Amino acid sequence: MTEAKAKRSSSLPNLTRYLTPPVIALLLAIALFLFGGVISPGFVNPNQAINIVRLAAFLGIIAAGQTLVIISGGEGIDLSVASIVTLGAILTFRLTDGQNELILPVLGVVLLVGAGIGLVNGLGIVFLRIPPLVMTLAMAGVVQGLILQVTRGQLEGDTPDLMSELIAQPLIGPLPGVIFLWIGLGIAMWLLLERTPYGKMLFAVGINRTTATLSGVRVPLVVVLTYAMSGMLAAFGGFVLLGFTDTVFLNLGGRYLFPSIAAVVVGGTLLSGGKGSYWGTMSGALVLQLINSLLQAQGLPEATQSIILGVVLLVLISIYGRQRAFRL
Amino acid sequence: MVTLSAQHLVKRYGGVVALADGNLEVQSGQVVALLGANGSGKSTLSKIVTGVVAPNEGQLLLDGQATSFASPLVARRAGITAVYQELSLVPEMTISENIWLSHEPMRLGRINRKAMQQRTQALLDLFQGTIPASLIPTTPVYNLHPDERQIVEILKAISQDPRLVIFDEATASLDSSQVTRLFELINRWKGEGMAIVFVSHRMDEIFRVADTATVLRNGSHVGTVDIAETSERQLVQMMIEGATAMEREAREPVAASAPIRLHVSDLTTEQLRGVSFELRDGELLGIGGLQGQGQSDLLLAIFGAIPFQGRLALGGKEVHFSHPQQAMKQDVAFVPGDRGNEGLLLIRSILDNLMLPSLREYGVPLRMQRARAQAGDVSDDLNVIMSSLDAPVNSLSGGNAQKVVIGKWLLRDPKLLLLNDPTKGVDVGAKGEFYSLLSNLRQQGTAILFYSSDDEELLGLCDRVLVMHDGRISAELAGENVTRENLVSASMGAAHHEAKPPGASQHEEPTA
Fold first, then answer.
1. Residue by residue, what is the 3-state secondary structure of B19-35?
2. Which CATH number describes the domain made up of B260-331+414-505?
3. CB distance B385–A7 less than 8 Å?
4. I need a labelling partner for A97 at 20 to 30 A (CA). Which of A255, B119, B204, B333 fits?
5. Do domains B3-240 and B260-331+414-505 have the same CATH topology?
6. pLDDT band at residue A104, thresholds of 50, 70 and 90?
7. Across the interface, which of B15, B348, B357 has its CB nearest the CB of A203?
């Protein structure tokens, strides 16, 4: 008893304990924003801040499913998110054909289709034991092919006005709807990960599948469900993105594939699984968007931007690695 | 000749003092037992002596000269090596490649494979009769059982012709015949001038092999005593500071009228070859025998974690689980043997580990306050020493981590508790607490199936003991018959049995 008390009092809170990767990412985002003000005067203003959060929101929403898949471990990764984003946007574009009253039913269809594609990913990974990288890469090809096959390159349809009003235009004061949507998703993801049996099981599966199984967790079910959810969230991302772009093209989601993984990793989620958070991913999305906006504001060529982004990612990840070594 | 003297060693990790005052004296021809509860600093002291960690204070004298080892390699060159419980073998490499790794016999600048195989064979011959003859130098290590890996680990240390060897819990996964052989060898090496430090939680082994015992408590040297003049009780007292020594459990026979909780008939798996028995409510049924005779398979099959043929009845109802979750719904709980890899999520909090099997009970959203209260109660009951429920479980010592594994199942009030060697690598204090827990559970009517690699535990605690060999029950000991002699002879007699061709043994009932 006395020993227990002694130990309790000796573990004083120390600062490095709170400097977790998600916190580092968030601090970095703030620092980058202020740094932006230094290198290009006028960068720091409310409109710019809102615009950056708005752009980060699309990436953040698309990276939500990726977060779940990466936490599930077993080399979990979902390379099909980009094609599903494209599909989600094209389906919405085509099926609503600009009619506001069709938005909700079409959203239902889009979510179901996304979940279905994710479900096939999960089944292939669990039951046919196809590595996630291969399974989801192949699925990306299949989805892209289906889009081409069905549309034959003719992208007909229209975006309902209500969607862009609700998503991209200022909704409450100067804030666009997508920001509220993102915050709502953040709360939902936190509840899902920290306050449901599924969330706790997902971490267990990501850390140690033997322990999970021997504790009564149905590992295959959790994994399949996770990929299904990733598909669904990617399709939702496509739906939301349409509200911003107003139009569709065949490679709409393509540029979100690697950022969706990078946002998760920058947010401190371990690629090996079992550890991570969605608010980390949200911070990661902000960091990536800020770097992007800063580089664009400097008018640097695309190639240079790409190099700088890569280097920043490497530096950040190596800092996280160091921190883990320190804590062990 | 070699003498090693560690004087007032101190090792701090950040603010935590792992070793406050470590002293150790050992010389040629001597076996010193290093004793202490988990967290007493034994491992740290061994690691300083073998150059794995550097001390903050104190000095190390080798043959009277002050020394410090910058790395294990430097210590090894000085003739000091260690055999650890956590294994350092490369599974994809063969026995001989593992043993000679980094000091391969060379000839004309190339590895002399022939010499390497011959020397490996000579080393394996040291354990002849206690390991299968099918083990040859070119057997890959991933094919080996834990006890065989441990032996390779020992041989790897010996292959370096050391002057001083530290055996750190090196007997934990060995069976009794292998331990006996190891002790014969230690006596021989001792005669040849080797100095030996022996770390073990098993009292009987210390009395069998050691000349003196050095006891550590909370990182400090308590004393060094002559084994011949010391009783087991005295040693335990030195280790656990005033508390009562572990008492043998008085056996109360279970009423034959108690309902049958578990009925197993003709259970067959890859390793099991037809196992049948009954277990009543409130009964503590032991499973003994040499390592790897199917004991783990038996427990895993009952828990639904591996496929099996045969019949299982739980509380009179026939069941056939294909997933642990189904077994858990019928109030079956399983404490696995390897707590790090099978029992715990090491980087998650104590609370999360305790909740894991019971998540569905807490609803959506999870009622965290209720979970926290229950987890707090169970960890208080089990006397888990921790900073808080939110601390990661890998911050706990071995004994406390094992309490978390047990606690997560106690939260479910199991009617049938399956235990796979639950006290392996657990300190004496925690073992004592665990034994009284078992007796409480029995009184509440929990049926317990208890595999242990420690014969003393089976003898001290169990109503009946099933001795297993080669996937079968080779003897059932009950009442007066639960004696050390019977237990050992049943496992050994069965081992003798193995020498016959498999076809011939198929129709014979082994005798105890």
1. EEEEEEEEECCEEEEEE
2. 3.40.50.300
3. yes
4. A255
5. yes
6. very high
7. B348
